[in-house]
Amino acid sequence: MPDRIHRSFMPRRSVLAGLAGAAIGPRGSAGQGGAPPPASANGGEIRFGALYPFSGSLSLLGDESFRGVEIAVEERNAAGGLLSRPVRLVKGEAADQNQAVVEARRLLGAERASGLFGTFSSALSFAATQVAEMQRVPYFELGAIGDPITERGFRTLFRTCPRASDFAREAVNAVPDTLAPAWGVAPGAIKVAVLHEDGLYGQSVSASQEAMLGARGLGLVEKLAYPARSPDLSTAVQRLKGAKADVVLHTGYQNDIIVFYRAMREAGWRPRMVIGSGAGYSGVDTMRAVGPDFDGTMNVDFTQFEVNERMAPGVRRFVEAYRRRYGSEPRSGHSLANYTGARVCLDAVQRAGGLEADRVRAAMLATDLPEGATPSGWGVRFDERGQNTRAKPFVLQWQNGKQVTVFPAEAAVARLRAQFGPAG
């Protein structure tokens, strides 16, 4: 296979010439449920399970995440495959934790998967990764951010994306570093509230936010949790209103974000700013469902598509490949995050020369890419827990129907607008 394509995640001078200009493969059959690719002369296909929520309330971003992996695999196959063999993705449905465990076992058993990609949801990942660890099979987590996922000492688990504590840090820092100067007030005068869904995702982000608010000398006036599928958040909104919150740090999925904004509208109240932490805050569908009230919303998230390409080389080529493959614009940066992560992992397996757990671990831990060396702008360097320590979220804002990067400066394509809600 051509080195210029599949050595694209190399130190920066190679990346800019290789990754940013790498050809992304044509539409293929991987993961489409049809016949598997033909076996190569050196043996049959290599199967990977793709474990995501393809139904239920998490299905939109679950499917969007899968699409990123699918593009990465099709690109790999178009360039000659993995270890001179074609790669096939086998879907696994993970609508809840129990199903994630059952499907992980099926993929590694009956489906003969050599490894697993996943999973978008922290709760689903926390459950499914235990199955892979017990069977000593590589599990590549590309999108679930809960810190506890990589804090259990697992040897076969590798996470390419940022952690909840990374999201929390950027959300908290945005208050004194960007909003306070824009509003012309002292950071300590800003009243901050934390609102979150009560699953592993929301718990991880909000706990880190609470600790970091204190470290930055910011006052926490309210902290509220709710069930992710709650149909009504009017009581929470009344409490936020009563606390006179200036900024609400909200961690939630699409459905509860819509419910939250509806409750604010019905109460005739909104804070000076809402800062989301990924998930539903990244989706175009969320913005459309909420309407004009969503404008100005800030979001700490995976890299989205309005970003300075000097910081994220190859992001435009990914968008072009996505359009060709699916006939539409990407629905969120989850596809880009999973594409980047899948390429890192496939490249490591290629360098390992096989899928044995110890060989894959050694190759993953040897990966060393600087920040700004991948289409997401992340670098890659794994610690002993399998966490990529060079994956960092960006600060974004919804402006006139688009989510634009506003921080850090080297990734930004727009200035922060200090107004939350429809521009007047």
UniProtKB/TrEMBL annotation:
The keyword Signal applies. Transmembrane segments: none annotated. Gene3D superfamilies: 3.40.50.2300. Residues 45-400 form the Leucine-binding protein domain. The keyword Lipid biosynthesis does not apply. Pfam families: Peripla_BP_6. Keywords: Signal. Signal peptide: none annotated. It comes from the Bacteria. Belongs to the leucine-binding protein family. This is ABC transporter substrate-binding protein. The lineage of its organism: Bacteria, Pseudomonadati, Pseudomonadota, Alphaproteobacteria, Acetobacterales.
